[in-house]
Amino acid sequence: MASYDKAFESYKKALTTAASVAASVMLVRSVVNDVVPYELREMLFSGFGYLRSRVSSQHTIIVEKKNDGFTNNHIYNAVRTYLATRINADLQQRLRVSSMDEDDKMMISMAEGEEMLDVYEGTEFKWCLICNDNSSDSGNGSGLQNEVSFEVSFHKNHKEKALKSYLPFILATAKDIKARERTLRIYMTEYSSEWSPIDLHHPSTFDTLAMDQKLKQSIIDDLNRFIKRKDYYRKIGKAWKRGYLLYGPPGTGKSSLIAAMANLLRFDIYDLELTEVNSNSDLRRLLVGMSNRSILVVEDIDCTIELKQREEGEGRDKSNSTEENKGEEKVTLSGLLNFVDGLWSTTGEERIIVFTTNYKERLDPALLRPGRMDMHIHMGYCTQESFRILTNNYHSINYHDTYPEIEKLIKDVKVTPAEVAEVLMRNDDTNIALHDLVDFLKSKMIEVNEIKTEHKETNNQLDEKKDNRDSDKK
């Protein structure tokens, strides 16, 4: 019993001492806040922090939300984006959940005071989200309220890795994440020299694109190589751009390929309608107004506008050039080429230029040479391989009993991927859809044979008339 009373007295003394120390600390803190100026307090705390850092093996980097308390800190936003992808919801006791609007996906991030561990190249980095309420100091002229910052702690031996490798890695990763998640936009010409944007939600990807796999892969490789060659283009003294000419019959997937390129690279599209542009000056204003990491598209370039040859007008009499001098009232071929690879081509970086046409032979050779249209892509009729891709897209199958017959017909009949897709979409029942496709291809075959027969009969009649004329002359 005596030992119990002794233990109780010791416990009672300990509680009394702790309470006394806590009260003394609170009193000192109150006196310091009331008597010591804010600036002096900051100096003292900094001194204590410096002494602690000299004896501690852990170093800390602070990433504040605001620069100087006013402007947003880009690194803070990048860290927040990066850590949101690294959070283990099962380990975090408290989480912050947010979204921009009802259609935006939910974003999970760290809550104030929570910690998480990230491992980079074998090194542990401990992150913590700090929120300091400085509203009580606003009367001292600091004007700071709710200072928010991320703190990352690590062993002092890894400070160089943290500053020169880990943080740049976070910035690059966050940039890629934002690029993948942002909504793409397509810009249309408006009022001759202005762009009008709308959101682009085209679902086309290279996986769903109905074209030869080797050609598809060569385009993907070319695009990926292009976006990684910034330093190379600068080294050789050329504008960082790439030109693609898509040519082939209507309905062969040229527009779908452009959308797939945009989705792969996460580039916005600028759809340039040349018939809406009044002059070379307006054309320059439009093209200079494009953002970097974008795709300029001029569809059906052979028929959207009658581009004047560069040679025209050079030897023209000055008296006949009055209207031309009034404001370059026509878009010329030289005006377009000057942006493609002339001086104006250097006004932006990381740009793709795409021309489409149904008739490549109608284009001026000046448009086609390397350096302007670097890669010429023929978009042909539906092949056996593209047919299988389409059936997998629309009916999620890899084989059907009708495949051998359909593939034989496709080999003999010129049919576009758009025509095949239209037939496959008519019915959700795979059997019915594929048999309808067989009937469609057979009807196309009959039409082709009838046309061939008509042409043959016409040619025979012409030959007979020619023979008759020759016999009459004799």
From TrEMBL:
This is AAA+ ATPase domain-containing protein. InterPro entries: AAA+_ATPase (IPR003593), AAA_N_dom (IPR025753), At3g28540-like_C (IPR058017), ATPase_AAA_core (IPR003959), ATPase_AAA_CS (IPR003960), Mitochondrial_chaperone_BCS1 (IPR050747), P-loop_NTPase (IPR027417). One of its GO terms (biological process) is response to stress. Belongs to the AAA ATPase family. BCS1 subfamily. Residues 441-468 form a coiled coil. Its cofactor is Mg(2+). Residues 310-329 are annotated as: Disordered. CDD domains: RecA-like_BCS1. Pfam families: AAA (PF00004), AAA_assoc (PF14363), AAA_lid_At3g28540 (PF25568). The lineage of its organism: Eukaryota, Viridiplantae, Streptophyta, Embryophyta, Tracheophyta. It comes from Setaria viridis (Green bristlegrass). One of its GO terms (molecular function) is ATP hydrolysis activity. Keywords: ATP-binding, Coiled coil, Magnesium, Nucleotide-binding. Residues 240-383 form the AAA+ ATPase domain. It catalyses: ATP + H2O = ADP + phosphate + H(+).
